[in-house]
From TrEMBL:
Protein name per the record: Sialate O-acetylesterase
Domain of life of the native organism: Bacteria
Gene3D superfamilies in UniProt: SGNH hydrolase (3.40.50.1110)
GO MF annotations, alphabetized: sialate O-acetylesterase activity
Residue stretches spanning the membrane: none
BP GO terms, sorted: carbohydrate metabolic process
Pfam families: SASA
Keyword vocabulary terms for this entry: Hydrolase
Domain Sialate O-acetylesterase: 105-351
InterPro entries cross-referenced by the UniProt entry: SASA, SGNH_hydro_sf, SIAE
Organism the protein comes from: Candidatus Nitrosymbiomonas proteolyticus
Length: 472
């Protein structure tokens, strides 16, 4: 890619004198938010071998651009502030300035259509758009770009949230940020890099699959002409993620998985791998990564257990990948619509994880998550995390969507009784139980919640072969 092409996003998003020879990467644009409390890499593009001077607030750094015209400097951490600070780069008479830069909390939001879903198409859209007037809530939207090669920059711009601008913006990203704004005395910036209908492998660098014989079938899709570009391994990472790193962030939120339901068992490997690769690219350790468990939906021709195995893969990721969290959405889906409209609650639940784990707020961030089981006679006792305050049925009725099986592996509807923070599961049809499953089908809408109203995640107590195990 030529230097001229790399400069285009920067020249659009910042104020530049004519004939400028220096520019910032696109993420450094007017109305941006930079992360508080972290060292701050700042980079851009110019002609080769130019002396570059960069100023951020009261700090100044100098460097020489590389033979390919790229340059980078690093600034000391800044405190959160709603007062705009200057960001300028210059070389000789050429100068570029970014306006209205504030310092606060920055999060990436990514995934497929449910994260991309606009505020204008949600429940209570008119009301929420009318109240979306916050000068210190900004969202950077990355243009959809699928690339066979690794791009050094993305295309996009920052938007200050107002009633006039809010409609097309990511609804979950907005509600997540709004929850942070209510609880933190700090500006909040979201970086929205999303594309509907895309699989997790498209958001993962292709190099991650090359040393994995077990994922060879995934890598083969990269050169398959029948696979569209946005679905090819690495294409969205190279076009929409790579150019953002190492812009300093607090963490990331994610909503994706519908496009991997048929390969749910493989998702147990693919999803943690993607998180690992993103963290490696940002070079700021295991930053927080919180994700929404996909909502119930009838997938038609697919086995109804496929979705349950995707839920299990997401729970597995939470259990095995450090500094992750999962917002369960079993009670706010729509089994007839893969795009449920209640994005406000999804954003709030994701924010609970951040508030509890990253900002020291004393809030309960999750509903019941399966911990362990114990067979006693003809009953199975289930224990949960996040159940210390007790369990309830959201509608006051008997618990639903529990099934139980014995050695024949035939599941029967079960009675589930709440006993403090545990559940006793049994059935007259199964005298010697071996397994309990909960909400184990794609259209399950169970009523088990914690006392704070957050729903339980689907689970199974057995490790019998998954129906998607051989799907590649």
């Amino acid at each position: 890619m030529s230097i001229a092409l790399l400069l285009i996003p920067s020249l659009i998003s910042a104020s530049v004198e004519p004939a400028a020879k220096v520019g910032f990467a696109a993420i450094f644009g007017d109305h941006m938010v930079v992360q508080a409390g972290r060292t701050l890499p700042v980079w851009g593009f110019s002609e080769p071998f130019l002396p570059i001077t960069v100023r951020l607030a009261d700090q100044t750094r100098t460097t020489l651009s590389a033979p390919d015209g790229t340059w980078r400097v690093t600034f000391s951490p800044l405190r959160a502030s709603s007062e705009p600070i200057p960001l300028e780069a210059s070389s000789g008479d050429a100068k570029v300035a970014v306006r209205d830069v504030v310092v606060g909390e920055v999060w990436i939001c990514s995934g497929q259509s449910n994260m991309e879903w606009p505020l204008s198409a949600t429940d209570h859209a008119q009301e929420d758009i009318a109240s979306a007037n916050d000068n210190l809530l900004r969202i950077f939207t990355v243009k959809n770009t699928a690339s066979e090669t690794a791009l050094q920059d993305v295309t996009g711009q920052w938007t200050v949230v107002t009633p006039a601008s809010a409609g097309p913006l990511t609804a979950i990203g907005y509600f997540f940020a709004k929850s942070l704004r209510v609880n933190l005395d700090s500006p909040v910036g979201m970086i929205d890099t999303t594309w509907g209908g895309t699989p997790v492998e498209a958001w993962t660098p292709a190099s991650a699959f090359e040393a994995r014989p077990d994922l060879a079938s995934v890598l083969e899709r990269r050169n398959n002409p029948q696979v569209g570009a946005p679905h090819r391994p690495g294409y969205l990472y190279d076009g929409m993620v790579r150019g953002l790193a190492p812009f300093r962030i607090r963490g990331a939120i994610w909503y994706q998985g519908e496009s991997n339901v048929s390969r749910a068992w493989q998702y147990r490997t693919l999803f943690p791998l993607m998180i690992e690769e993103w963290r490696a690219a940002w070079k700021q350790g295991a930053f927080p990564f919180y994700f929404a468990q996909i909502a119930p939906f009838r997938y038609g021709s697919q086995n109804p257990e496929n979705c349950a195995e995707l839920w299990e893969a997401q729970l597995h990721t939470y259990r095995t990948t450090p500094r992750t969290g999962m917002a369960v959405t079993m009670d706010i889906g729509n089994v007839s619509d893969i795009h449920p409209r209640n994005k406000r609650e999804v954003g709030r639940r994701l924010a609970l994880w951040a508030l509890a784990n990253d900002y020291g707020r004393e809030v309960v961030c999750s509903g019941p998550l399966y911990r362990s089981s114990k067979i006693e006679g003809s009953a199975v006792w289930i224990e949960f995390d996040f159940a210390e305050d007790g369990l309830v049925a959201s509608d006051g009725k008997p618990l639903t969507h529990f099934v139980i099986a014995g050695q024949d592996r035939v599941f029967h509807e079960a009675k589930a009784a709440i006993v403090g923070s545990k559940i006793r599961v049994s059935s007259d049809a199964v005298r010697q139980p071996l397994s309990v499953r909960f909400a184990w089908r794609d259209d399950a809408v169970p009523n088990l919640v914690s006392r704070n109203g957050l729903p339980a995640s689907p689970f199974r107590t057995d490790d019998w072969p998954a129906v998607t195990r051989e799907n590649r």
